[in-house]
Amino acid sequence: MEKIEQFKHLLEYFVSHIEYVIHEDPNFIGYDEYIKPHIEANGEFIPRGTGWRRTSNFNQKTIAQWNDFGDDHIVSFKVGSGRRGADTKGTYLHWLGDAYSIKANWELDDDSYEWHVASLIICYSCEPPMKEASLDELGLFKKDVITDDLKQFWKCFESLAESGSEENDSKDVSIVDTLADLVHRNKNLILTGAPGTGKTYLAKQVARTIIDNDEYFDEQCNMVQFHPSYDYTDFIEGLRPVTQDNGQIGFKLEPGTFKQFCEQAAAYPDYPYVFIIDEINRGEVSKIFGELFFSLDPDYRGPKGRVKSQYHNLVSKNKDDVFAQGLYVPENVYVIATMNDIDRSVESIDFAFRRRFTWYEVKPEQRLSMLEPANLDVCQNNKNLQEKLDKASFYDCCKNYCSRLNEAICEEPGLGSAYQVGPAYLLKSLNYLNLNGDISEDSVYNALEQVWNLHIDPLLREYLRGKSEAELYKILLKLRNCYYYDNEDDYDEEY
């Protein structure tokens, strides 16, 4: 089969699938060829999900035939709820890499007063459409018909996908998808790296991608931050003081945050639940997890990994109590943790605990996109501010300052890559700009000078504690010059 014929069949399947999700109408033209065979073969039709999750029923039962679609390209197919146009990420089709998507554009039928797919759109993420064509122009559901519009649509998609894959590797959507795939495969993930790389924010983005339902996100995701006084009774279970009927103080066994979360996840095994642990190495992890340390292992998830806690004799033996026979971590619970491994004031992670997690280093250069005005929270509902920051070259200035400094830090003996400064430090420059007034390149430079003086310089001094005054002065002068200047000829001779 020619590549363009494969492409046409994939578009037909995509349209048939989302039409059936909305209407469940067996009379739709693509039902017999694309939907009915799945129902007959599997006894059900999995309507929603994300194709690259290889563990999902959606992938295994509904789009299995499209997984290998020639030339080792893997179809990534996501179906959200409701009609989604080019301005959302809710429903899309990826092929030839994950740079550009095909999305559906819906129109209201004047006769039936129902919404139907009217055209298909090629676009990157939430950006404006690059190409659009109606189903009729594409010749969809017309046997052995390859239209000129389909050829042009295919040519556009193929060229954009090939040229865009490298160009967009650094965008947040790429790293989020990569991490979500790692979490699905391994159950437990630790994001490590330099301070200021947005690991906590990234963990929440990954959780949102895994849960894939904003309506229930708060119910299916929970986050705690470990600290030195956080312990087993806070996390798993422990005795808590209660006032009894006679007015006396007694003690009652109460579940901790993670046990409560696991109880809820066990009640809804078909839905993913994500537990985020921020600053995991700030707590004594072996003490906090206790016996559940064993069940956290991906190979011992579910009832087969039951363990009896130190309070098991006080646990209700009601057969309806999911943990009556012992604690375990349900299969549908995913754990994402963050840590700064250069923080020398906190507990280390032992090797047995490390083995239970997949580790991913978030590097500053991967997160430079957080400096783009279009990605800033303050610009989300303020296009005027975004335009002002763009005009003042805010992104380029911050990116260059950050990159030059980190390159120098990596080369400095006694520091190295673990001591780099994350882009979040450069975002502090917004605190020193008049966001309601004029913003110029000079004002951005002045704001970045404030960032050095008030945030980066104190951080570097802490990194370099123990150096002599003369040596400290020399290193800081060098790093400051690298932060400010491209050319060594412009370097300051004195701090």
| Order of adjacent strands in the largest pleated sheet | 1-2-3-4-5-6
Our count of domains comes out at 3
Poorly predicted spans: 67-72, 81-89, 164-173
**Strand residue content:** 5-15%
Rg, Å, rounded: 27 Å
CATH topology of the largest domain: Rossmann fold
- The general outline is flat
Q: Calculate the terminal CA-CA distance, rounded to whole Å.
A: 68 Å
Structural category: alpha/beta
CATH superfamily of the largest domain: P-loop containing nucleotide triphosphate hydrolases
CATH class of the largest domain: Alpha Beta
Strand tally is 13
Describe the protein's topology:
Layout (H helix, E strand, L loop, with lengths): L2 H21 L7 H12 L6 E2 L6 H6 L13 E4 L12 E3 L6 E8 L6 E9 L7 E4 H4 L9 H20 L4 H15 L1 E6 L5 H13 L5 H4 E5 L6 H4 L1 E7 L5 E7 L1 H11 L5 E6 L6 H5 L2 H4 L37 E7 L11 H5 L2 E5 L20 H9 L2 H18 L11 H5 L13 H23 L5 H16 L11
Helix pairs in contact: 6-7, 15-17, 15-18, 17-18
How would you concisely characterize the structure shown here?
By secondary structure, the protein is an alpha/beta fold. The protein folds into three domains: 3-167, no CATH class; 172-362, P-loop containing nucleotide triphosphate hydrolases (Rossmann fold, 3-Layer(aba) Sandwich), CATH 3.40.50; 367-490, no CATH class. Helices cover 39% and strands 15% of the residues.
